[in-house]
Amino acid sequence: MASLSNLYLFIYNSVQALGWAIALFRILIDFVSTKSINGAYASAGDLICLLQTLGFIEVLHGALGIVPSGFLFPLMQWGGRTHFVLAIVHRLLEVQKSPAVFITFVAWCCMEIIRYPFYALSCLGKCPSFITYLRYTAFIVIYPIGVLGEMWIMYQSLPVIMEKNLYANYFSVLPFTYYTFVKVVLICYPFLWLQLYLYLFKQRRSKLRTRNEKQKKRK
């Protein structure tokens, strides 16, 4: 069973790694060919929406105990990203050409083409030390950039959301509108992000310390 689980996780993470690499390649090709950062969503938006939606599988992995990460923090990260890309960027043509979409997508892709290969190779027990180091270090710079891009887009979308009364049907039974919901999310975002950021630092200390201890034993 353990071997089957590792094989499944290796395939899943490899597919995700390939998907995010293709998304980054499309974005960069569009940038080089057009000399513009406005085409990030047009070039890779649909693929990123698909990959991000499939990421819910990782929440299930944690909930079912297939991986030891638990489900709370993966759920928070998946929920924030998915709301951003599906409910706002995918829905509103007015923000799809924003430079913040380019910034956010590139940050996401860079993080994922490190994270997923790390997971895939770890399933084989053959993850190079430099990938482990990147997995638990690159987020220090990349993660804040991505979050700032997400917040920028949400802020830009507020007037459009109000003008269109977006998702009015879904929120008609609630005492607040989607516009109010996004404003509250925007206010809470830095605090929720900080919890995730500190959690990643905690992971970093634990994982890199374990790696260093193993290297010392080998010597």
UniProtKB/TrEMBL annotation:
GO molecular function (one): very-long-chain (3R)-3-hydroxyacyl-CoA dehydratase activity
Keywords for this protein: Endoplasmic reticulum, Fatty acid biosynthesis, Fatty acid metabolism, Lipid biosynthesis, Lipid metabolism, Lyase, Membrane, Transmembrane, Transmembrane helix
Broad class of the protein's primary localization: endoplasmic reticulum
UniProt catalytic activity: a very-long-chain (3R)-3-hydroxyacyl-CoA = a very-long-chain (2E)-enoyl-CoA + H2O
One CC-aspect GO term: endoplasmic reticulum membrane
Membrane topology: Multi-pass membrane protein
Family statement: Belongs to the very long-chain fatty acids dehydratase HACD family.
Classification via PANTHER family: VERY-LONG-CHAIN (3R)-3-HYDROXYACYL-COA DEHYDRATASE
Name of the protein in question: Very-long-chain (3R)-3-hydroxyacyl-CoA dehydratase
Organism name: Lactuca saligna (Willowleaf lettuce)
